[in-house]
Amino acid sequence: METLKFKNGDKMPAIGLGTWKSEKGKVEEAVKIALNNGYRHIDCAATYGNEAEIGRAFNEIFSGGKIKREDVWVTSKLWNDSHRKEHVIPALKQTLKDLQLDYLDLYLIHWPVAFKHRVSFPSKDEDYLSLEEVPIIETWNAMIEAKKQGLVKHIGVSNFSSKKLNDLMSKTTEIPEMNQVELHPFLPQPELLQFCQENNIHCTAFSPLGSSDRSEKMKAENEPSLLKEPAIIEVAKKHNVSPAQVLIKWAVARGTAVIPKSTTKDHIISNLGSIKVNLEEEDLKKIAGIGRDFRYVTGEFFVTPGNPYNNIYDL
Ligand SMILES: NC(=O)c1ccc[n+]([C@@H]2O[C@H](COP(=O)([O-])OP(=O)(O)OC[C@H]3O[C@@H](n4cnc5c(N)ncnc54)[C@H](OP(=O)(O)O)[C@@H]3O)[C@@H](O)[C@H]2O)c1
Predict the structure, then answer these.
(1) How many CA atoms lie within 13 A of 223 on its CB side?
(2) Would the CB of 225 count as within 6 Å of ligand 1?
């Protein structure tokens, strides 16, 4: 399995299991299937509301003894209502308690957006805190403290533009080790990827298959399907693999980690199997030629009239 290497020698397996929208009642089994079939990387977040179930899977697997805690890379993310310095470590400790772990391999600031404490989702302008009220550097310094305390091995961010990364890097000597962002053939973001590579920031590709299980209200009308894109299907047929396997291997071939979500056993297993797909230069060219610019996770759910976070990706 390809890995992403960190400065201290730690290695993150390039393919992990995503868990957003993985329902309670299904996610525990999905994580067990994944670990028992070779996954060694699970992507979690407090806001997904399922960390306690995932924790039950970890507990069962790790106490079984065949797979050790240190063999698995676990990522989680700080939710937007806990950006104030006094809220970061308590939020992290809740995640550790739910996941039944002593430490995380990677903890990310989920979005460069802050809500008032205990607002899970904003419904009005007053639910937000502006970045003047809670600057990202305040949150970041608390993330550094969490690392110093040994609660997490690596720290990073998610949904950060290069402008946001630059701004944070100008205020700290501890550079984020990861930027988890939406990346797939409809949104390849080459400039952001290059910026991250030049600054030794790894990238993880989220929504690599087009996130089709998002709620209808998060979807654009007639949104395009990555899995039905003719160029992807053509490459898949050529190699006798599935479109999902092409999309996952495409992400790995670009040097990113990738975290397809699934609670369906066959998908979980075949998604990891994509590592064996050998994409050739002409396949990559064909995929690059798709030339569409489409973002599935727009961040529009953060927009209430007059809130400080319009145009989240340009801030
Ligand atoms: N940092 C962030 O802000 C952020 C945002 C979005 C996502 N993420 C992370 O990235 C992960 C992946 O993104 P995502 O959940 O948005 O969407 P995704 O992985 O692009 O797509 C998930 C959908 O694809 C289906 N699927 C999975 N494998 C398949 C296969 N082999 N063939 C056909 N369909 C397949 C799943 O159904 P089944 O479950 O039935 O297989 C599900 O409906 C998330 O779960 C989360 O961990 C992070």
Answers:
(1) 21
(2) no
- Rounded Cα gap, residues 174 and 156, in angstroms: 10
How far is ligand 1, taken at its centre, from the CA of residue 59, in Å?
24
User: In the prediction, which pLDDT does 301 show?
Assistant: 76
Any idea what the Cα angle at residue 285 is, between residues 283 and 286, rounded to 5°? 65
Does any domain span residue 213?
yes
> Would you say the pTM of this structure is higher than 0.90?
yes
Give 119's contacts (C-beta < 8 A, 6+ positions apart): 81, 127
Residue 135 lies in a domain: yes
Is 139 touching ligand 1 by the criterion CB < 6 Å?
no
Whether ligand 1 lies within 6 angstroms of the CB of 20 is answered as yes
Is 42 inside a domain boundary?
A: yes
Phi-psi region of 289 (alpha: psi -120 to 50; beta: other; left: phi over 0): alpha
The answer to the question of residue 165 being in a domain is yes
Whether 128 is catalytic: no
User: Could you tell which of 207, 248, 258 is best to mutate to test the pocket of ligand 1, judged by most ligand atoms within 8 Å of the CB?
Assistant: 207
* CATH number for position 39: 3.20.20.100
Measured in angstroms, how far is the CA atom of residue 256 from the centroid of ligand 1?
16
How many structural domains does the chain have? 1
10-residue mean pLDDT series, the chain (315 residues): 96 98 97 98 98 98 96 98 98 98 98 95 90 95 98 98 96 98 97 97 98 92 95 98 98 98 98 97 96 89 76 60
Task: Indicate the burial class of 285 (C-beta count within 10 angstroms; 0-12, 13-18, 19 or more).
Answer: exposed
Contacts of 217 (CB under 8 A, 6+ apart): none
